[in-house]
Amino acid sequence: MNKCVKCPHAGKYAFCNLGAGARDFLDNQSVTLEYPRGSILFREGERGAAIFLVCSGKVKVSASSSEGRSAIVRVAHHSDVLGMSAVLGETEYEVTAEALEPCMVRVLHARALKQFMAEFRDATIGVAQALAQDYKAAFQEIRRIALPETPAGRLSRLILDWAEEHAAIGSSSFVINLTHEELASMTSTTRETITRTLSRLRKDNVITTKGVSFTILNPAMLHQLAAS
User: Fold this and answer.
1) What per-residue confidence (pLDDT) applies to 1?
2) More confidently predicted of 173 and 191
3) In what order do the strands lie in the sheet with 40-42?
């Protein structure tokens, strides 16, 4: 079994900054699962029975409308905790979580989470930090969709958010492993518009791409587009 104490991210993020007793509890009471790309961790509408701590890999989080349309809300990565509000509120999951790439995830069921919080103060702090991360992700989604008036602005905002996120975890390069259709879903536009916009950004030397790898050449221009 993978132990939290051996994790390279120990001490850095929500539920990764735990004392020895809390780490032992989490190791003993949770189950570590590996999800291949495309696997569903949980579905929107299912009863919130467990939280999911992403240890490695990326998870696509999406929501659907009553008409059946789906939109990607965020892409979660290591240190993110999914399903927290549904478990605490004893309600259904508001979103669907799907492995965007091979993932290792620690699953802690609702009853164990409540015991975890009751016995360990640092666990309660971890829950608060996880909810704060959810709030930040929701704010970024609103900012990305509502503020830029153009598709280029929304895509620029998404690229900047991803660049900022990867800089925060110590990486000088970043990968957006989403299809143009998925990028369109995250920016409230169309696949064709995403393709044209990326082509123009490359032509204007604002970014370069190699497969799914992105490099920003002109961050000032991206910020200008995102503010328009």
Assistant:
1) 45
2) 191
3) 40-42, 96-99, 59-64, 70-76
- Burial code (b: 16+ CB inside 10 Å, e: under 16) for 190-204 equals eeebbeebbeebeee
* Calpha distance 144→165 (Å, rounded): 14
Structure-token pair, residue 90: 């004893």
The C-alpha atoms of residue 172 and residue 109 are separated, in whole angstroms, by: 36
Identify whether the C-beta of residue 16 lies closer than 8 Å to the C-beta of residue 7.
yes
pLDDT for residue 200 is more than 90: yes
Burial 78-111 (b: 16+ CB within 10 A, else e): bbbbbbbbbbbeeeebebbbbbbbebbbbbbebe
Phi, psi of 50 (to 5 degrees): -160, 160
The CA distance from 128 to 133, in Å, is 9
Residues of the chain above pLDDT 90, percent? 48
Supply the angle between the helices 180-187 and 151-168 in degrees, to the nearest 10.
Answer: 100
Residue 78 clears pLDDT 90, i.e. is over it: no
